[in-house]
Automatic annotation (TrEMBL):
Pfam families: p450. PANTHER family: CYTOCHROME P450 71B11-RELATED (PTHR47956), CYTOCHROME P450 71B25-RELATED (PTHR47956:SF5). Its cofactor is heme. This is Uncharacterized protein. It is a single-pass membrane protein. It is found in: Membrane. It comes from the Eukaryota. It comes from Vitis rotundifolia (Muscadine grape). GO terms for molecular function: heme binding; iron ion binding; monooxygenase activity; oxidoreductase activity, acting on paired donors, with incorporation or reduction of molecular oxygen. PROSITE patterns: CYTOCHROME_P450. GO terms for cellular component: membrane.
Amino acid sequence: MDLFLAGVDTGAITVTWAMTELARNPRIMKKAQAEVRSSIGNKGKVTESDVDQLHYLNMVVKETLRLHPPAPLLLPRETMSHFEINGYHIYPKTQVHVNVWAIGRDPNLWKNPEEFLPERFMDNSVDFRGQHFELLPFGAGRRICPGMYMAIATVEVALANLLYRFNWNLPNGMREADINMEEAAGLTVRKKFALNLVPILHHC
């Protein structure tokens, strides 16, 4: 049950942030919609077996996880021996917290880190499955988040269907720059204020 709840919760948070970033960046939303609609055609819905061919959507999800990891800090680790890192001495039985939120916005690792640019993943192999330490929304190694695959499957299918079935407009009088991006503090990085969009059914 814990595994199920963790996967669903992080998935819902990520879909919310993805739709927020897409609403702020209509060019990117249109590009993602064009990919989904041309790939799926008139099937009526996107299934899990379809998402492997949605490469741009995958880049959108990666970029969302980079800027908005579901949890800002990984679960703490405890050191077993003394070591030194960046001039700091870390002693045995020290709790270490990895700040994945800061890593995802580090200008030494990412060009224009505050910008939502899915294309940054076009020509590189950086992935979120724990092999690349510049993108660690689910951790790495033996203690990587066990709900990762459920969360990713949930996000990709849900987001693809939202883009496939609907066009999305801002409420009357609202501009992209007016979308509030404040985060709610807590164990997870949720959007502080609800995202309000107007769905318009797209006839496939």
